[in-house]
């Protein structure tokens, strides 16, 4: 009995520990229990995803591509193609890119038996959107298996809104969201124009029309023969005059990604609203919505928005507005209506929010908006999952937003009514979230479209958020006081910075190896070891927690050769910023314990000294530190990175022939001069053929000329007859920006020396870099940030959020700096509160050095484009509010510079300012 009692106590303790991290619905999990895992990157306009068996995810891309992501092999492969329309052609014959294409995909509930998938797309020939079924076998689409299920007639003269999201209920009914397919009015309000020839500007003909499938969420039951039946409970019973029985909900502008709560059967989706930033003569400002349908219903558009706020009647003959529509008695009297006149009772929005602050739902934030949607979490859906999310999220609706990038958990009561909301992993930001759902393994997947419209973005990707309910491995940090030197060499090791989120007791073991053979071990968070013999060693630190979970990291030590030391000086007052000096005197000195010095033993031609320009948006230190050779230019590293990130590398290799010539062969054919550079830049952008054989060179019309020039400069640098000459140990450098660069980048002076090594010891390369940055800096480049938000899908807009939010720049030389100017572009649409800016040095909590004038909530704006002769940069500055911070002379020298944003009346969620630029002026 004694042992049985002990065992029971142990089991109870174990269950208590388990419930504390997984089963207690009142315990919010720590953010560090979630791990972001990237599964795919560089997709071509990803639209929607669906989960296949065997850890595979199928993604559809707008232009018609299917991509299959295999989580097991970590590979992304083409899985088929669907011909689709991607263009609008207006009455005048002008063609432009359309929102439509391949818009949605979903797996059949019985996919393991029938291999069926459903896709929604824009027909390539006829103006219609099509729901069709295919077989998907052996990881590829079976083209000839296609069966058309349903068609939605559309117009493709004008933008916008397609819908295309799909989901299933437990009875095998398919839900499909369909957009309004209507012009966006310039007013940013509702679409009510009944004038002849303007039918595409009247949403009464579609979302408000019971006899049209557009602006709806449809519910059908697909049958095995490719037809469908109508389930019970749709909005209009079969046979109802002037109605379509497929309609489950109507009155939508652009319903997006739908989901079903598996417990309640309630339907949820995101709804993209109109653009108006304020109330006006037409009625209310625009709102986006996150909606819930407990049953079939009408959701108000185009007569109502938000919590049933009515628009005003519109007179199409004279363009005037009249009285407001009656939310309790909506009648569709449009000449374009082919359905019933008296509309069903309108359901108000579940959640709604404008561009500015939302008094009802302040956590939604402000600025650009585009509601996506997301899943309702039920643990019962993941009984055998590897990593189900914790019970804290049971019954919560997890929503995401294309423009604002957050994930919010919405709590509801037992009736499905709203209770509260909170951000999930608030430090994370997703770039254009197109779709979000839980996979079979319990992980939450987010499909990101990326930053720019209508192109394959480098930052488009598929990621998942894994939840770890159990013991977490230690996070290991390891360092040494030196990493090379003469023997005997005593090195001190430190595990400082190692953490364990569970607070476990940690043990540290250091293993020293040479050529894969263990030479010795030492223990402790800090330890020392003496290397008696020359050689290149690997030191590995393994940290073990009290649950026996381990993690490790390693670094190298070279014994028997001391790394050289390099001093690099510029004769210049301010060592951080470039202020337009035409000439900069420099001097380089090298000393090496084994080789001597530049004064005795080391010749000038053994030291690589380069002066280079790195364009804005690239880290000059990173570029300078990643050279293929000691004398390579940092700007060439930029060009190489661009090539490796493009599709060029699929046809061209750096020094071997592929489908096309190697880059080295190109550099040898074309001497490095301005004429050849312009020729090759044109070929990169516009394509070409006939020079190297029968294979034509693909065009890259979306590539801007500056990036193409950077790529070509790298290619031309590869010529065997060329090379980068060293500048010598002293002299004068002349900062000259390449003619194709427009933004202000950085100048990099770099000195590098690789010593001669020794017997059995590798040579050591040492470098020293001086970076002169532009004094005009972006807030995104700040090393320190608190309570800021970057809206990547809205032009990378950078906001300070809440009182005492801040940004900080590390190790800035303030010598000669007279003031710091912060350029701010607040707008009525973003709902910013304004405030003041404070200058602090070395700590955001230190003394206030300077305080700016009060910044208004709205920056007066001029025309959208600068007048002739005015640069876009100067035009932005002229149309910005300016916070001026004076820098006293006694602040000279290097400091961490903090800009703290103040408004004591602001809440923690209020946007204070949209930061555009920070300028350090010497005038």
CATH level-3 fold name of the largest domain: Cytochrome Bc1 Complex, Chain D, domain 2
Overall 3D geometry?
Answer: globular
CATH superfamily of the largest domain: Cytochrome c-like domain
Unreliable stretches: 1-20, 627-631
Beta percentage is 35-45%
Mean pLDDT: 89
Q: What Rg is obtained from the alpha carbons, in whole angstroms?
A: 32 Å
Number of helices: 8
Helix content: under 10%
Distance between the termini: 86 Å
Overview in brief:
This protein is 9% helix and 36% strand. The chain has eight helices and 58 strands.
Salient structural properties:
mainly beta, Immunoglobulin-like, 5 domains, 6-stranded mixed sheet, 6-stranded antiparallel sheet, disordered N terminus, heme, PKD domain-containing protein, heme binding, metal-binding, iron ion binding
Describe this structure in words.
The chain has five domains: 129 residues, no CATH class; 192 residues, no CATH class; 81 residues, Immunoglobulins (Immunoglobulin-like, Sandwich), CATH 2.60.40.10; 201 residues, Cytochrome Bc1 Complex, Chain D, domain 2, CATH 1.10.760; 146 residues, Galactose-binding domain-like (Jelly Rolls, Sandwich), CATH 2.60.120.260. It contains eight helices and 58 strands. The strands form 15 sheets. Strands 12, 13, 14, 15, 16 and 20 form a six-stranded mixed β-sheet that branches. Strands 48, 50, 51, 53, 56 and 58 form a six-stranded antiparallel β-sheet that branches. A hairpin with a 6-residue loop joins strand 54 and strand 55. Helix 4 crosses helix 7 and helix 6 crosses helix 7. The protein is globular and about 100 Å long. The N terminus is likely disordered.
